[in-house]
Every structure is written in C-alpha cells, then in structure tokens.
Amino acid sequence: MSKQLFWIICALALAGHASGQIAQPGRYEIELESFDTPYNVLSGKENGLLLYKQTGKYRKGKEVWHFVKLDTALQKQWEKEYYIDDDLIFRGYEFNQDYYYFLFQVPNRGYRDFLIIRMSDFTGDTIHHTIQNPVALQLEIFEVADSAVLVGGYYGDEPVVVHYTFEDRKSKVLPAIYGKRTELVHIKVVNGLINVLVTGRTFDNRNTLVLKVYNGHGEYIDDYVFKPKEDTGLIFGRIADIENVGTLITGTYGTRRSEYSRGIFIARHKPGEGQDIRYFSYGEMANFFSYMKARRQSRINKRIERKKIKGKKAKFNYRLLVHEIIKSGNTYIMLGEAFYPKYENSNFRTPYVGSSSFGDLPYYGGSTFVGYRYTHAVVIGFDREGNMLWDNSFEIEDVLTYDLEQFVHADVLDDKVVLMYLYNNEVRTKIISGSEVLEGKSYDNVRMMFADDVENKNGVANIGGLEKWYGHYFYAYGIQRIKNLRDAGVKLNRRVFYVNKLIYKEGAKDEQKTSQQDNLNQP
C-alpha cells in the first residue's frame, strides 16, 4: 500500500468518527455500591435538576426515597430522604412553576385514587393531594397546568381524563371523551385552554384525529373532527402552540386504517374557518432516506424516479414517533424518530428476566420480541401556514429498547439545528441548517471528573440518557465504572452515577484542552 493511499484511508476513518464541538462545563457524581440502582433525573429548567430514586431500604414499614437537588452549575443545594408507603404505585412525575410533582396510585378502593406529592424546588418541603376517582385507571398521561392536574388513562377500553384543581381540591372527569375504539394521543395546555387529541373514525370508518377543547376549569367548549382526504387515515399527532392561527397538528398519515405511516401531515384548524391539511409522503422528502448507506439510498432514489416517470408516487411504510414541535422565529420544527420491532428466531421460548412498560413481551411461535430498533430521526421545518420548508434526518445507531421513548433531542441556534443523543456514554451529534448538513455525525465521550479517569466498559450495561434542559443546555446522565491509576486522593476503582452539563459551542474543543478538573463539581 502506498503512503498516499494509507493517509487517505486514515483521513476517511477519522471523518467517519469525528469529534464535535460539545462543551461540558459541569459534572456531578454520586458513588454507588455494586448493586445500587441508578437515579432518575427530573429537569427543573432554570431552577436546576432533581435526582431521586427508591433505595430498596425500609424504615418503619415505609420505603426510603433519596432526593438530591442541584442548581444549574451542578452544585448540591439540598439532600433529603422521605419515607413513602411501599404499597403506593409510582406512576409519573412533572415539574411546573417551582414545584416537582410525583404521582402515585393508592391501594384504597382498588387503586382508584391517586396521591400527588408536591415538592418545593427551593426547600424540598412537600404537600400531599389525594385525587378521588370513580374508577381504577390504567394510566398513560400526567400533565400539570398552572392550577390543575390532568391524569389520563383507560378504564377497560375506554379513555378517561381526570381534572383536579389545587385550589378547591376537587376532581372530575372531563366530559365527551369516550369510545371503545378511541385512544388518547396528546394533552396540551395552550393559552389557558386544555386541548385533548384523541383518535377517531370518519363516517366511512377511516382513521382520523379529534381535537377536544376545555377551559381551565375542565368545562367542555368544543371539539373538531379532522377530515382526511379520500383513502387516507390520520394515525398520530402532536399539538403545536402557534399564536393567532388557531390550532396546528402535525403527525403521521397512512392508508384508511393502517398502523403504518406513508408520510407526514400538517393540519391547521381555526374556529369558523374549517381545516387545511397538507400531506408530504416520505418519497417526496429530499433527505428522509439520507440516513441509509449510499448504495441503498441510490436504489431508493432510482425507484422514486421510475415511479415519477410513470406519473405515480413511490409508497413507503414506516413506524414513526412524532415527539415535539420547536418554534424558531417564523419557522416550526418537527422532530420524530423512525423505528421497527425486532424479533429473533428461536426453537424454544426463553423467558425475559426483567420488566417492560408494555407488560408481557410478544412471542410468536419461534420468534421472540427483543426490542424496538431505531433507524433515524426526522427533522422537518414548516411555516405558520403549514407549508413544508425543508427536511433532514439523523441516523441512529445501535439503539434497541423495550420502551418507545425519545432519544434524539434538538436545539435551535440562529440558523442551525443541533441534533444530539447519548449511547453507551458517548454523545452523538449532527448539525444541520435546513436541508444542509453543516457538521456530519460527531462523537464525544462523556467528560470525566478527573484528568486520569478511564471508563471501564466491560460488562457495564448501557444505562443513561440525554435530555434538553434549559436555554441551549442539555444534560447527560448514566452509570460509569471508572479506573484511576494516577490522581492523588482518588479511588483506584469507583462506580458512579453521573450528570454532565452539555452545550454545543463553536471552538469548544479548544476550550476543553484546559485542565480536566476546570468547572467540574463534586458532591
């Protein structure tokens, strides 16, 4: 091999595993024993972060929960333990206006009632609220508004949303949400109004979405049934908060009653003015398939062109989760993730040791469900009128999970969109501007506490995640097993739960050539 060819290969290899511009100005660690479970991390936005977990230890017949409150510099503000009845079933959490909310189902009356523990961000002091409910619910949604709590779930096959007000401590079921083929899709409070999006059927039995609107007291105002075009069904949607143009829903559409999507729809509804739904098939998007390897993408593009020549459209079926809509000036940016269920062939059934929020894992005569494989994130920019301006994508590698959750998160910096996710304690980033790629996929290791810390990944499960925090900051968290052979006063081996503060920043790599301990915090 010639020297010239050797250096070309090296350059290509480095380009494929490039280092990005992610600054990590802070880190917090809690040392764990060998079998300690990880903490959960709840964002208080500009107030900081709350770390909490069930310890598995008991006092006076109650389980000990451990809480640690951090500020935005990842400095500890307070630390407390609370004793919580072990027969309560923990169901969800939220943060709103300086308070953290923890939702439990109460065993009294057949788990009909809920207990909400409201915790002060500043002191950790708590107030308890009991929500009386007429039926036991399988919970799906927990939202906290300024003066009320919304708890959504199912009683049998029928959806129910409970509205509870803090001021008068009264609860009631929101009216007009019912139907055995109706599913809760999204709840969003916009300008003081409670918007509930549910699935429905058109008069000719096609999938669609129905928007139900209530005032802040839970009183019914109106509903609207979206009417998809002929031979089309609306599958899933998210409510956008768009000023002065009514309600805008973006989501996925498919054939009449299919659970597979053919593309993205953007629907705008304004009272008294009807609806406007626009459809964008995956084959029409410029970059939907750019996550693929070049040869496969070329085959897809040729197939699309052949169909165009014949006056037809290429049809592609995908499962796509729509997560959030971000406002940036006059542009609205939708973020979603494509996935598929993965199975492994087996001549015998091997029990899965663990749990899944979906209950028993599917098994189909010789094939065992092993998780959901994510393929790529989809990013679409559109204007207030529902016109698509651009699209882009971000390939997702290695992610296999039993729970459908959001992995890729986005931030907008002027004309740039920063896309980021964490896998195996490695931050993976891509920078786009509209349909252009400014920086290809880059990889940054989670920054350690000390200069000579080395992570030992042997036998360590991929536990952790990455979330949007406040402003342009993210936080990454997880468990690491770390070895340190040189730093004085540091244990040779330690197992820690960490939280790192992250931000995309020009020239971040140059800044981080300084001491590894700069701006890092210890408990």
Quick structural gist:
With 523 residues, the chain is mainly beta. The protein has helices spanning 3-16, 108-111, 294-309, 508-511; strands at residues 22-32, 40-43, 49-59, 62-70, 76-85, 89-96, 99-105, 114-120, 126-131, 138-144, 148-155, 158-165, 170-173, 184-190, 193-201, 207-214, 220-225, 233-240, 247-254, 263-269, 275-281, 319-328, 331-345, 363-364, 367-382, 388-395, 400-401, 409-413, 416-423, 426-433, 436-445, 453-455, 464-468, 474-484, 493-504. The strands form 8 sheets. Strands 22, 23, 24, 25, 26 and 27 form a 6-stranded antiparallel β-sheet that branches. Strands 1, 32, 33, 34 and 35 form a 5-stranded antiparallel β-sheet that branches. A 4-stranded antiparallel β-sheet has the order 2-3-4-5, with no helix packed on it.
Itemize the secondary structure elements and their pairings.
Layout: H1 3-16, E1 22-32, E2 40-43, E3 49-59, E4 62-70, E5 76-85, E6 89-96, E7 99-105, H2 108-111, E8 114-120, E9 126-131, E10 138-144, E11 148-155, E12 158-165, E13 170-173, E14 184-190, E15 193-201, E16 207-214, E17 220-225, E18 233-240, E19 247-254, E20 263-269, E21 275-281, H3 294-309, E22 319-328, E23 331-345, E24 363-364, E25 367-382, E26 388-395, E27 400-401, E28 409-413, E29 416-423, E30 426-433, E31 436-445, E32 453-455, E33 464-468, E34 474-484, E35 493-504, H4 508-511
Structure write-up:
By secondary structure, the protein is mainly β. It has a domain at 317-351 and 359-445. The chain contains 4 helices and 35 strands. It has helices at residues 3-16, 108-111, 294-309, 508-511; strands at 22-32, 40-43, 49-59, 62-70, 76-85, 89-96, 99-105, 114-120, 126-131, 138-144, 148-155, 158-165, 170-173, 184-190, 193-201, 207-214, 220-225, 233-240, 247-254, 263-269, 275-281, 319-328, 331-345, 363-364, 367-382, 388-395, 400-401, 409-413, 416-423, 426-433, 436-445, 453-455, 464-468, 474-484, 493-504. Strands 22, 23, 24, 25, 26 and 27 form a 6-stranded antiparallel sheet that branches. Strands 1, 32, 33, 34 and 35 form a 5-stranded antiparallel sheet that branches. A 4-stranded antiparallel sheet has the order 2-3-4-5, with no helix packed on it. A hairpin with a 5-residue loop joins strand 20 (263-269) and strand 21. The longest helix has 16 residues, at 294-309. It is globular and about 70 Å long. The N and C termini lie far apart (53 Å).
